[in-house]
Amino acid sequence: MNAPMLRTHSPPAAAWHRPAPSPAIVSRRARIPLPRARPAAAAATETRTTAAAGTVEALLLLRESGLRAESLPRHVGVVIDGHERWARARGLSVSEGHAAGRRAVERTVRLSRAWGIRALTVFVCSHENMTRPKAEIDFLMRLYEGFIRDNVDEFSREGIRLHLIGDSPGRPASLLSAASEAHEATRSNSEMVLMLAIGYSGRRDMVQACRELAAEAQRNQLQPEDIDEALIAERLGTSVAAGGELSCPDLVIRTSGERRLSNFLLWQSAFSELFFPDVMWPDFGEDEYLGALRSYQSRERRFGQRK
């Protein structure tokens, strides 16, 4: 079947980028491509039917890969890198690279849900990235506002709860509103937590946690000696994942061949397994995701202990 659970719509065109690329330009690595947009009323029944079919096909892929479903990571973090290089290699604009990247995010959400991953954190952009050219950032914010609004119905049906993490003041009110509405609509969902890290900084996350604890100490609500790792973790952005149970990623993937975290989940990634494929994010599909999971299952996690 050729239809996953998530739909895509492009944001309003901006003068600085070309029209969206044709399907031939988009990554061919995903064997279950996204459907073209159709009128919502005509597509509603078909979407629900093909979503189930897409889930079945994804599960077959997992079974054929030889991976052990019971040993998959519960929480996966992804640093989505390589959009600009992917676009330039194809003679495309940066915006077309980001648009292709959004489609890869949608594939990854769909596969994670089908494979039983309990939490997925997508590092869309860092607090530091917000200083990039305004036209690029404005497009990126509209792109992921559209991602949230376009897919909230599917998230609701598939049991996915959405959270936006990060605190950069550069995030537009319309994005924050879309995220708030989606969170309210999906707050009771429990199959998977999807956290979009937009304008996020691991260092700022920790600073904010320290400020909250200091304020509580000033109000005599706790003593300095009461502060421990658990109290800090409760105040970090990812604490929203299953009441903190899934706040730390078991596996962190960064695409494009770069081998650094770039301020992503610094506290939470203390014991994460790291995987750095050379593929650019827009080309991250089923094979690449399975490769990351296969690498994860080949490792022995000791958490500093001797076995």
Automatic annotation (TrEMBL):
InterPro entries from the UniProt entry: UPP_synth-like, UPP_synth-like_CS, UPP_synth-like_sf
Taxonomy, superkingdom: Eukaryota
GO MF annotation list: transferase activity, transferring alkyl or aryl (other than methyl) groups
Keyword Lyase: no
Pfam families noted in UniProt: Prenyltransf
EC number(s) stated in the UniProt entry for this protein: 2.5.1.-
Gene Ontology BP term (one): polyprenol biosynthetic process
Family in the record: Belongs to the UPP synthase family.
Entries under HAMAP family matching the protein: ISPT (MF_01139)
Protein name from the UniProt record: Alkyl transferase
Organism the protein comes from: Setaria italica
